[in-house]
Amino acid sequence: MSKAVPPTGATFVGMPPFPRAARDAVGDAQLRHNLRKATHTIRDKRAVVVDELADWAELRAAGAAIKDRTLRRLDEHLLAVEAAVTSAGGTVHWAADAAEANRIVADLVRATGETEVVKVKSMVTQEIGLNEALAAEGIRAYETDLAELIVQLGEDLPSHILVPAIHRNRAEIREIFVREMGEWGVPAPAGLTDEPAALAEAARRHLRERFLSAKVAVSGANFVVAETGTLVVVESEGNGRMCLTLPETLISVVGIEKVVPTWADLEVFLQLLPRSSTGERMNPYTSMWTGVTPGDGPQDFHLVLLDNGRTDVLADRTGRQALRCIRCSACLNVCPVYERTGGHAYGSVYPGPIGAILVPQLGGVATGKVDAQTASLPYASSLCGACYEVCPVAIDIPEVLVHLREQVVEGGGHRAEKAAMRAAEWVLDDPGRLRRVQRLAARSRKLIPKRAPGPGAAWTDSRSIPAVPAESFRDWWVRERSGPADTAQAGVRPTGSAPAAAVVEARESEGEGR
Amino acid sequence: MRVGLFITCVNDTLYPRTGRAVVRLLERLGCEVDFPLAQTCCGQMHWNTGYGPRIEPMVRRFADTFAGYDAVVTPSGSCGAMIRDNHPRAAARAQDPTLAADVAAVVPKVYDLTEFIVDVLGVTDVGAYFPHKVAYHPTCHSQRLMKLGDRPTALLREVRGLELLGLPGEQECCGFGGTFAVKNPDVSTAMGADKVRHAAGTGAEVLCAADNSCLMHIGGLMDRQRTGMRVLHLAEILASTEKEPA
Questions:
Q1: pLDDT score for A488
Q2: Beta strand B71-74 pairing with B230-233
């Protein structure tokens, strides 16, 4: 091994706001092709296995209800988790934020005397930047999930919750393996092809050495069952099972919203999750462990329960439904925006529709303290509703997006937009003014340029402006259908604070229709 | 039956042809149509862009203007959904029980044009003639929020001379999304380009939908690309006859 520290990859820090990042992404033909193929494949697979369940709607409603019920008494359930894990021989740590969680994990690893850890794929450890924090302490964190391995070896960033290397095709993956594997351990075999089976075999041989030598593992968890203090990891490759059973020490970092009260509750999610995420009827490797079992598996188990903004999300009546999320990625796979930009454009570890509602909330958008990049995320949606339709826990993502847009607007800035919206209100609050504006547009319709200057270019760069008609529908109706009495009601009674001159002009303008 | 037509501000200003088609169509089907002149806008642009707290006057105006009708018909899936789903929320937020009651009274009477024709009038053959190849785009809010289902295509299938062609990827958003189209113009255009490609690939002459705002975006792209297709609101096809073709 020639490199002193493992690749911790790039970071999302300093990414431009979504529209700017998206501009580059939509222009990348290879990326567009990779994403179109991958998202449509998973999307179609999910649709098949969801449609075959007659009670999917009921399962979905049950999933949402269990999460909501649990979140309402989250404090009590978390104390139950702590008591159960402790009595089963584990140690529970509470972390208020990313820095505290990273410090706890680093201290625990250092206490073992080890300088390497193996990792089970985990979103929450990416959320807190654990690999980078450990690297700063001289500890190497090795990803063992195939896609995370591809991302780590390529010094890249994840672009999807479930399949973080979705932006790579197999030729690119082969190239990364050939170039990088030898730097960190078992090299790629000579003559490696880009056949999926050959790539998987190369990864298997590379990782096997890692599993057998690792003394410490770090994981997240998909669920924590409060009644017994049991953690659950759901994965497809068996790398998780290796990490959770072979090392001597296991440290699991878990967001506080991952609790389910009982095993009966868990059953619902073990049906919802695999069908929604990988399009499988049953999950391949479901690992469950409760504290420490003498003589079997890790003998030192630590659970780090992480808040990192979650209690603030819980306090928001509309936004809190985001905490139901089970990280299945179904919303990413159906999202027409994600399909065209990929995950990197979102500038955060949680991309796609769920990221657009989760990241701003975890970052404190309600308090108006987020940066321009984070504030751009709630607008990264056409509100088409495809995400809500597939969400297995019925998170109304469009509703939350609109709610967060209001928080962004309240947070200040957007001066030109606010002025435009106020002007639109002034016109739309009164039919007389609307009619006056319509007539102005009709009179000057020949003057409207094909390509607009300034902000209007955002429309006309790619689309023609519709031809303004000589007569609005309103004017046609008055001319064709109404008598003078109706015309008098044609909205010529401006109310509110219109300047007197405008009122007079509106009345004069109205007169033309009689 | 006394029908109040909520034309929507976009149609009123930019697509009066659609409004005239709705009037002609509904009158042909025996309805008494009125266009109350006090109407303006449903507030959708403000609501969806983060200015929800500002739309209370528009919500109040809508409820007052349309209180006296047996049915309120609108030729826009997204405006219809705005009224049905969000006017009650806006009224609740205003904490005005009178407004909430007025909104609650008017909302159940609001219909998308196709819902009104199929469900209320009980008609699928509206006596239309339109001898062209047509593809139908079931716009996101028409399908997911208004849940129009197969009503629009049931109506189109009965139009004499019309050949309805399947649109690949029909459930995918065209990329308009209101202010999304200008806040994220590159993604919006990329989405629209795929929609145009799918539509042109069908061999249809006309792409129709039940919402002119989506068609403004798709049609604008088609025009720039010299696609040689046109977009048309569903109402204009349904109003079309041998005597008065669309």
A1: 45
A2: unpaired
Q: What is the ipTM of this complex?
A: 0.97
Q: Check whether A496 has a pLDDT greater than 50.
A: no
CA dihedral of residues A312, A93, A77, A259 (deg, nearest 10): 80
Question: What end-to-end distance do the CA atoms of chain B give, in Å?
Answer: 26
Q: Which residue of chain B has the CA closest to A18? A: B184
pLDDT at A484: 53
Binary contact (B185, A428; C-beta < 8 A): no
Mean pLDDT of chain A: 91
Q: Tell me the pLDDT tens digit for each residue of A457-492.
A: 999 999 999 999 999 999 999 999 876 545 444 444
Spatial distance between the Cα atoms of A106 and A251, rounded to a whole number of angstroms: 10
Nearest CA in chain B to A468: B14
Distance in Å, alpha carbon of A327 to nearest chain B alpha carbon? 23
pLDDT in tens, B125-146: 999 999 999 999 999 999 999 9
The runs of H, that is alpha helices, within A122-195 are 123-127, 130-136, 146-153, 170-184
Q: Give the pLDDT confidence of A282-335 residue by residue, as tens digits.
A: 999 999 999 999 999 999 999 999 999 999 999 999 999 999 999 999 999 999
What is the spatial distance between Cα B49 and Cα A407, in angstroms, rounded to a whole number?
11
Task: Count interface pairs A-B at CB distance under 8 A.
Answer: 191
The packing angle between helices A18-26 and B185-201, to 10°, is 40
The verdict on a CB contact (< 8 Å) between B183 and A408 is: no
Could you tell me if B79 and B145 lie in one domain? Answer: no
Closest by Cα among A430, A424, A427, A435 to A478: A435
What's the number of domains chain B is made of? 2
CA distance A374 to A349: 12
Decide if A421 and B54 are in contact by the 8 Å CB cutoff.
Answer: yes
When the candidates are 3.40.50.10420, 3.40.30.10, 2.60.40.2550, 3.90.1640.10, the CATH number that belongs to A53-311 is 3.40.50.10420
Mean pLDDT computed over B93-101: 96
Give me B73's structure tokens.
């018909």
Which chain B residue has its CA at the smallest distance from A17's CA?
A: B184
Whether residue B114 is found in the same domain as residue B149 = no
Distance CA A109, CA A195 (A): 37
